[in-house]
Amino acid sequence: MKFFIDSADIEKISALNEIGLVDGVTTNPSIIAKSGLDFKNVIREICELVEGPVSAEVVATDAEQMIIEGRELRKIADNVCVKLPLTMDGLKACNQFSKEGIPTNVTLCFSPNQALLAAKVGATYISPFIGRLDDITLDGMDLISDIRMIYDNYGFETEILAASIRNVNHVKQCALAGADVMTAPPDVVEKLSTHPLTDKGLSAFLKDWKKTGQTIL
What we know:
Helix content is 53%, strand content 17%. The protein is of the alpha/beta class. Strands 1-2-3-4-5-6-7-8 form an eight-stranded parallel beta barrel, surrounded by six helices. Helix 1 (10-19) packs parallel to helix 3 and helix 4 packs across helix 5 (88-100). It is globular. The model has no long low-confidence stretch (mean pLDDT 97).
């Protein structure tokens, strides 16, 4: 499963990238707004930092303007992936970008039928929002499983990019359900390495090693 970082925080993206844990980056208007950074500048900087796709979202709601904005975003860097909302206009724009060979990430997916439409028009990625479904007492992971089955049934090449991931359990469940990609905030990725028994075991090892009076160097 590929790891995308859902953030505009250059420092945190860079730190995880150095470890080898960044296959791509996703952003959205809310993330950019919270960062207080210039949209094009931050996308450009992220694209220079990571080799994988960097999702940059259009803000238009009609297809023609989405296409104009998407083409403009692609001028920033070759690894920009145009992010589009899952609306009929968004699907129309996605279809056009697919014809032009421009990668797309169709976002705000909440049903298998929506995911089916995105695959039909050639989306590179489909972004089902797990956490937001959980918020309304639905099981977001069921959506991942349903999309996986539909895509496998018909050989669609659209990759499932699990989004709105809130915790480490979501990551595990996505991997088990067969998501191609997961995107999560840096803090969630960092927490994947932690376990109380790991900390306890390491503490015991170091304590015992100290008793030997030896050094490695």
